[in-house]
């Protein structure tokens, strides 16, 4: 009888353990499996395939992807390619401009509208946000037409400056167009964050005689700091992914002076007048991935420190 009871208790314990395993492990994985499968086949598999392809010579016309192993030769080609370094520099120009100028403009405009109590503030926000609704290709085509040598901009200011065909000015023109389009998007996010600012604290600051600059720096910005971080992350990712505005406005020219990492990757991999070196293009893709991983790790470390 005693042995029978022990076996029964052990059987019950096994059933309880299996029940916990089922509830805590199998059920959650069952619910997350569709998203996990999409992640594996849509994101993880291309990343792994691109990494492997970066060690092979592949032109895109061979049925065998992994025919000629070249080791780090594709990375050496990039290391000695001045246009790759130009594209890397221009990408960081995009990053710096988007997380400084673009965010600063959006923050200033959102504070100005939110605390200005304008009669037509909704219309003003709509007008500023409207460019973000437009397709980047449409925006780029419109600006390309306006910035041509005989375009609207030169006619208004009585100039003949080659805005999009100047080696020194092309990348800055592209950055300007990008800021023009996406400042309104950041403004809307900041405007939503400003609604969480405690008005009573601002009123108390007014009683104490605080200046507007003091209220912005000591009350408003600390209150919406998580929103600022959100915009920084969105702009950082968007800057590394920028392609359409650059490609439509300048095609990466003149003389590859306005290339970014995505356009030089396209040039190496798919461009009709490019070298058709998809292995080199995959190497660029992996370098972009590695840079984003580094930024992600740094961001996690700052979060752990309470930044």
Structure, described:
- The protein has 307 residues and is mainly α.
- It has 2 domains: 2-53, no CATH class; 76-304, MetI-like (MetI-like fold).
- The chain contains 13 helices and 2 strands.
- The chain has helices at 2-53, 73-79, 82-116, 121-133, 136-146, 152-157, 170-194, 199-207, 212-223, 225-241, 244-250, 261-269, 278-304; strands spanning 56-57, 68-69.
- Strands 1-2 form a two-stranded antiparallel sheet.
- Helix 1 (2-53) packs across helix 13 (278-304), helix 3 (82-116) packs antiparallel against helix 10 and helix 5 (136-146) packs parallel to helix 11 (244-250).
- The N and C termini lie far apart (64 Å).
Any key phrases for this structure?
mainly alpha, globular, disordered N terminus, 75% helix, 2 domains, MetI-like fold, two-stranded antiparallel ribbon, 13 helices, 1% strand, 307 residues
Give the SSE layout:
Layout: H1 2-53, E1 56-57, E2 68-69, H2 73-79, H3 82-116, H4 121-133, H5 136-146, H6 152-157, H7 170-194, H8 199-207, H9 212-223, H10 225-241, H11 244-250, H12 261-269, H13 278-304
Antiparallel strand pairs: 1-2
Helix pairs in contact: 1-13, 2-13, 3-7, 3-10, 3-12, 4-7, 5-11, 7-11, 12-13
| Cα radius of gyration in angstroms | 27 Å
**Main sheet: strands, sense, barrel:** 2 strands, antiparallel
Percent in strands: under 5%
What is the CATH H-level superfamily of the largest domain? Answer: MetI-like
Give the class-level CATH name of the largest domain.
Mainly Alpha
Total count of domains: 2
Beginning-to-end CA distance, first to last residue: 64 Å
Number of helices: 13
CATH topology of the largest domain: MetI-like fold
Overall geometric form: globular
Strand order of the largest sheet: 1-2
CATH-derived architecture of the largest domain = Orthogonal Bundle
Helix content: over 70%
SS-based class: mainly alpha
Number of strands: 2
Mean pLDDT: 84
Poorly predicted runs of 5 or more residues:
1-10
Assembly of the depicted chains: single chain
From N to C, what is the helix and strand string?
Answer: HEEHHHHHHHHHHHH
